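User: Hello! I'm new to structural biology and keep hearing that structure can be predicted from sequence alone. Could you demonstrate with LysR family transcriptional regulator? Please show me the input and the output so I can see what each looks like.

Assistant: Of course. The first part below is the input, the amino acid sequence of LysR family transcriptional regulator. The second part is the output, the predicted structure written as tokens.
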Amino acid sequence: MKELPTLQELQSFIAYNKMGNFTLAAQSMNITQSAFSAQMKKLERLVGVKLIARSTRGSCLTQEGERFLPEAEHIIESLERAVHTIRLSSKLERPVLNVGILRSMGDIRLNSFVAHFSGDNPDFSISVFDMEEEEMLLDLRENRIDIGFVYLPNNKDMSMYESVALRDDNIVYYAPLITNLPADQKVTIRQIVESPLVAYPPKYFMSRAMRSYFSEVSQHDKPHGSRLSNPYAMVDYCKKNKAGAMVSKRFLAELGITEGYYELQKPLNLQVCFVYRKGNSKWETMKIFMEHVTRQTLG
């Protein structure tokens, strides 16, 4: 039988694609660069085509390498899934899920999902991480987290992920100490920008969403105010200062806040989605958790 590539050679090839550099890829595989280079040359010999183009200016995947990459990833993912499944069925491994939630959402709602889920599924272990969009997509790609809760649509390449819509978040204007707003009317963009507005750091998804929302306002009249890292801090700030913040109505309800906020005359609704990497070896475990969250949300 013709010799086939080893799993380590396939893993090294996948590592090269992630790092884009022989030195970094070798470090990630914990081998020397010369050993890594030898693995790639052997892989190319066994496959029969050049997978990586090398030059004095660097290296990159060839067209054949681009075509071979998803096949290599599929082989590794299928093996990981098979091992994970058999270990679970043999009670050798406890189902563990790593779940990320967009920092600007606030994780209080997810905490309640986890608590209910753990009560119904005591054999499962779940870790929750709050993170921003770029960090979450990177951790999904590198299998450091299994499921992400994000707002869609966004401006990121989502081609390697699956997404499932969960709910819509209605964004409202929270400003309990600003007293010149009519309680029985929806607040306008003009009224919002007349007072300090607490905002998110520029790299956050919600910062981009706010820029789009206020795009009709002239640069001179753009909202101004402090930047805070999460909705908990924003709500606390607005309770103590004459400032407003754009936050999810659902988030306020979870905190027990039923007043001090205003509906928007120009609505802003953001779709909350599950996002996960295609071919994750924990799919059956992930499916159980996502079905549970969906039932809790719709219920």
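User: So the tokens describe the shape?

Assistant: Right, they're a compact way of writing down the 3D structure. Reading them back into a model, for example: The chain has three domains: 7-89, 94-168+273-298, 169-269.
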